Amino acid sequence: MAETDVTDQTYLTDSPSDTQTLLLSLQKLLADPEAQGEVCAFLDGLNDTEIALLLESFPSTERERIWQCVPQSLQGEVLAEIGEEVRSGIMADMPVEAVTNLTQNLPPEDVTELLGTVNPEIKEAVIETLDTPVRDYVETLQGYGENQVGRFMDPDTANVKQGVSLETVQRYVRINQLLDAESQELMVTDKDNYLVGALSLVDLVKQNQEALVDEYMHMPTYLVDTMDTHEAATILRSKELSFVPVVNEAGILVGQLNSSEIMALTRDDADATLLGMSGVKEEDELFAPIRSSAKSRGVWLGINLATAFLAAWVIGQFEAVLSQVVALAVLMPVVASMGGIAGSQTLTVVIRGMAMGQIGGNNRWWLMNKELWVGMIGGAVWGAVVAVVAQIWFENAMITLVIALAILINMTVANVAGISIPLLLKRMGIDPALSGAVILTTVTDVVGFMSFLGLATLLILSV
Length: 463
Description:
By secondary structure, the chain is mainly alpha-helical.
């Protein structure tokens, strides 16, 4: 194989096409078992985010070859970037010394990510090797659950006390080097460290330097450290925040979320919602082993099978009419399908609205009424379309009437179910994204078959 010069190339991953370029280039190199040197040269020209993306884009066998070529200086950052399941596979047999080396010169939040993957004995041994400030930082983050805001926050806050002049604040900030590239505001606390406001950097520089902080501070949107990340992501998206302080339940400032942490939190929440709507666990990764993927998806497939048998039982109750009118068996899937699509459209829009914090109070009844009418109008229009096709196909007025009415009923019920199911699940403390689709499918199938075959029994067999 001819040697490929990749060390001088610069790759960007700002778009899917750039990602594809990286992926296809590495695939070509990995196709040659003798090209390990070229693989290492290729990775030398990439950053930690790009390497992490590539590791997640290959099965485990190729990952081993890729990991062997990851520059040692980037290994810790790469492991912190990748998903938990991929990271677990790479770190499965790492000794304490190797994990300790990975954590050297790594930001405390990344150390926390890595230590969340290893067993308790290795975690404890590695923590003992950390510098005291980093160890305290890591132990603070590990004290929170994986789905709590505190796990994402930066405990090292940039805050000043109220009652001092802007000039004093500027001098204090410069001496203590409080600001970094991501800082946009300074938080203001009282003598007991309770959050009392925030001061923008613009006001800090622009306003009269003899004025007190209290004159220009404002009360910012803040999050509680024990708040669920889904609830927090809803707030962050609705307000388009790029900086937010974090307090404990007593109101004492304990950390802050900068733009990078906010992006990570909202991105993870969006990923979890998307996967949950298909009954897939958040930690399931694309190139997981066959057995692992089959096992993780099997639970919801089993639940779906149970609901399918329920629909089949409903069909079985109308065996008499099906045995006499074969056309009903031909048209029956159309009713269920139209209801399923209509309901899933409503379900998707509602779950998105709930994630954005747009649904609550009396607007739920407005939406319920809206979806009722949307379902009725859609059912009437598409029921008429299907009725025309059925009449041309079977030339039977009763069958035409049955299919039109059944589609009207099922699409109306589907739209109402599409909004009522997620609202009911949320009230019960169940994630609507995880189980809403399965319940909706059951409703549309059962209502569709029952309305179609029930109307056929009344209007055809009774005539």
